[in-house]
Structures are given as structure tokens and as C-alpha cells.
Amino acid sequence: MVASPTTITLACLRDQAAAAARLEAIAQRTSGEQIIQAAARVDAILERVRREGDAALIALTEEFDGVRPEPLRIPQQELAAAWEQCPAHLRRALELAHERILAFHRHQRPSDLAVTGPHGELLGRRWRPVERAGLYVPGGRASYPSTVLMNAVPAKVAGVGRLVMVTPPGPTGQPNPTVLAAAHLAGIEEIYRVGGAQAIGALAYGTASIPRVDVITGPGNLYVTLAKKAVYGQVAIDSLAGPSEVLVIADHTARPEQVAADLLAQAEHDPLAAAILLTTSEALARSVPAAIEAQLSGHPRAAITRAALENWGLIVVCEDLDQAAALSDCFAPEHLELLVEEPEALAERIQHAGAIFLGPYTPEAVGDYLAGPNHTLPTSGTARFAGALSVETFLRHTSLIRFNRQALHATAEAVVALAESEGLHSHAESVRQRLD
Q1: Among 2, 6, 131, 295, which residue has the fewest nearby CB atoms (within 10 Å)?
Q2: 108 and 89, same domain (yes or no)
Q3: 41 occurs within a structural domain
Q4: What is the C-alpha to C-alpha distance for residues 165 and 202, in angstroms, rounded to an integer?
Q5: pLDDT tens by residue, 259-285
């Protein structure tokens, strides 16, 4: 690997194994001693919330955020005021995003299943929403009204009866007004000004003010993610989201300025964000770093962006698109952009990706905000076995089984044989008692 003149590392893929090793290191960028220390702090925070409830939430928010969140719950009139005071052009953008996200997620609602077996028995599965869902909306380096919509809309489509949103307070004690405006648009009435691991603890255990929920969704920082991991089993979670990442596969048709902008769009999220380019064009690989430098000039988040690119940026020159596809599947990116001549054909060769963006007119940003599919996606290689947040995240399914006399008689011998093979006498007897 040869260092480029700019902040991104330029790797010439004559050695595919070296590139694969670097991609593996990027995927594991949040592992190690830092995690162990953070997990211990999270456990202490969760235990304090479990014991002390609201008092812990107020004290911890004052300690970590520098404000005293009283009252914890944001009054309903403040949500309506946030919407009314939101600039008109931003309201229109939020309404368009809400409309498109809602339209797409309505297609996700699964149907109940009923099957008649060979002896007339009924076999089925039914879907029901969870009763309460907790939505975590991060604050900190940026505010995310889009996250409000991406979590609230599928929960609403699923039919969840009670949505409980938590979000960190700003310096004045009030969450970002655009976040509140988005919540008002999405129909969320119950919002609490608390964030971090303590907010996850409140949703998992319940306090005097915040109800215990059945599922917690929404991304957050390392402490939020570790808290979700710790409470999983007492409550369901959507995923363990890591830092954001984009992988771009580009050929000779891609424009370096567009590739640079797409890499920067991911790197500006967080110093741990990853931005990777796999290209079959040596010329593109050499021109993208200069385009990145040009766009970083005067960038309002230049420090964050440079830190991400210096540590987790990568350009690899591939022999062909097959090699690029193989490396991409090795990494299993959260976001995959295909800036190639025939993106649909290449997409068919990709097995592991959270979301695939096809062609030059589909920057990842449209997926972040209003394309329709959910932007809460698997990270850190988990796209090998996980998918996006969806309506099903807020549903649970129950099996339905009804045997008649004929079905039980037809299968009894096999059930008894299997039960006796496992040494479970009463299992077999429960069938025998029904045979006469």
C-alpha cells in the first residue's frame, strides 16, 4: 500500500490479500480495549438507572450534557411550536420525506399465513405489533430529523400503540427544534430530553416518568450501542449499529468530483466513519484524492472528516469488477454505491450490503433522507446476516396450530416415537391419552 498525497490511503491492488486485510481492519475499527472500558462504564450507568430511576436520569444528564432536564418530558405545545416555527422550505422537505418513507414502508407489512395440512389440520402464523416502542434519536455532533422519520414511520405502519422517543438535550436544555418538528410530523407525542446509555436504561427498565418498552430502535454513539447490547433479552433491539460507512465501486465512467463528494458525505459523520473506493480505473484513483482536497477547503466539518479519512479512508485499484465485487462482499458495507456503466448487472453479483445505490444519479444522501427504504442499516460487516430496520422490527409473529382427530391419529405414532427417543415420557403420554 502506497500513501497518497492526501489524507486517503491509496492501495494498488496487485495483492488482493493485503486489501482484504485492510478492509477487515476497517470493519473491526471499534473493537479492543476501548470497548471493554466503555462497557464497564455503561454497566454502571444502567445499574444506577435501574436503582434510582428519574433521579439518575436527571443527575447523569446534568453530568454529561451540562443541563438539568426538568421536566424530563417535553410538553406537547412545544412540539407543535417547533413545527410552526420550522422554516417553510424545511417543512416541505420533511413532508416529502415523510410521504415517501410512509409509502414505501406500507408495502412491507407482512400478511398472516394460514395453511391446511394433509389431514385437514390448520397451520398458521399471525403478526401483531409490540405494545410500546422506544425510539432513540441521537444528538451530539449533529441533529438527525431523518432518524425520527426512519424510526417512527415503520413503527406507525406496524400499528405500535405507544411510541416513546428519547433524545439528548441541547446546550439550552432543549433538543434540536428540527428534530422536534419531525417528531410532530410523525405523530410522536411522548418525547423525553435524555440521551446516552441512561436513556437506553430508562426505556429498558422503565422509570416513574418513562415507560418500559418492548423494543428499542435507533442509532447512537458507542455508549448507546453498548447499552442496547447490555439490555438485549430484557427488551428487543433493532441492531448494534457501529460508525457509518460507504463503499463505492467505480469504473472509468465515474466522475472524480462526484466520487469525492460521496466519500466525504460519509466521512463527515464521525471520526470513526469509513469511506472506501474500489475502482478499475487507475486514472480515477489518482484524481479522487485531489478532488477530496479541493472539496475539503472551507469544509465546516473538516476536522472530523479528515480524521475519518486519515484513519479509515481507502482507495483500491482492482483488476476488474469481479474482484471489486468480491472485496465488497468481504467488507459487507452498510452503504454500497455502484458508479459503473452497468450498475444493475453488478448489483446481481453483490451478496452482502445494507443498501445498494445504483448509478450516477443515486448518491447515498437520497437514501439517508427521502428515497423511501429505511436508512438504519447494518454496519461493521453485519450486512452478512442482517438487514435494514423495517416494519417487521416492530412486529412479533405467533404460530397457530390446530389438529383435528384425523391429523392426530395420522401422526401420533411418529410423535410418540420422537418423544420416547428423547426420553420424554409425558410428551408421548399426552398423545396416547387422546387416541382412544
Answers
A1: 2
A2: yes
A3: no
A4: 11
A5: 999 999 999 999 999 999 999 999 999
| Domain at 356, CATH number | 3.40.50.1980
What strands, in cross-sheet order, belong to the sheet with 9-12? 2-3, 9-12, 313-317, 274-279, 245-250, 335-339, 355-358
Nearest partner of 188 among 128, 238, 237, 148, judged by Cα: 148
* Known active-site residue 335: yes
Domain that holds residue 156: 65-112+128-237
Task: State phi, psi for 122 to the nearest 5 degrees.
Answer: -100, 130
- DSSP assignment letter at 73: B
Instruction: Classify each residue of 346-383 as buried b or exposed e, where b means 16 or more C-beta atoms within 10 Å of its C-beta.
Output: bbeebebbbbbbbbbebbbbebbbbbbbbbbbbbbbbb
Q: Are residues 221 and 275 in the same domain?
A: no
- Whether 106 is covered by a domain: the verdict is yes
Q: Is there a single domain that holds both residue 195 and residue 214?
A: yes
- For the chain, first and last CA: distance in Å? 77
Q: Check whether residue 192 and residue 261 sit in a common domain.
A: no
Provide the 3-class DSSP secondary structure of residue 243. Answer: coil
Q: Give the rounded distance of the alpha carbon of 355 from its chain centre.
A: 11
Is residue 92 over pLDDT 50? yes
Residue 162 has what pLDDT? 97
Domain boundary (196, 219, 237) is at 237
Q: In the structure grid, which three cell numbers stand for residue 27, read together?
A: 470493519
Number of structural domains, the chain? 3
Per-residue pLDDT reduced to its tens digit, 209-237: 999 999 999 999 999 999 999 999 999 99
SS3 category, 400: strand
The one catalytic residue among 334, 337, 364, 375 = 334
391 close to 158: Cβ distance less than 8 angstroms: yes
Domain contains 260: yes
Residues 343, 227 share a domain: no
φ and ψ at 424, to 5 degrees?
Answer: -105, 85
Is there a single domain that holds both residue 157 and residue 198?
A: yes
Q: What pLDDT, on the 0 to 100 scale, is given for residue 241?
A: 87
State the catalytic residue, choosing from 184, 269, 335, 375: 335
Q: Quick one: how far is CA 28 from the chain centroid?
A: 17
184 is catalytic: no
Average pLDDT over residues 17-28: 90
Do 184 and 258 fall within a single domain?
no
Task: Supply the pTM of this predicted model.
Answer: 0.93
Residue 157: inside a domain, yes or no?
yes
**Domain finish residue from 320, 348, 371:** 371
CA–CA gap between residue 127 and residue 399 (Å, rounded): 9
d(CA 206, CA 225): 18
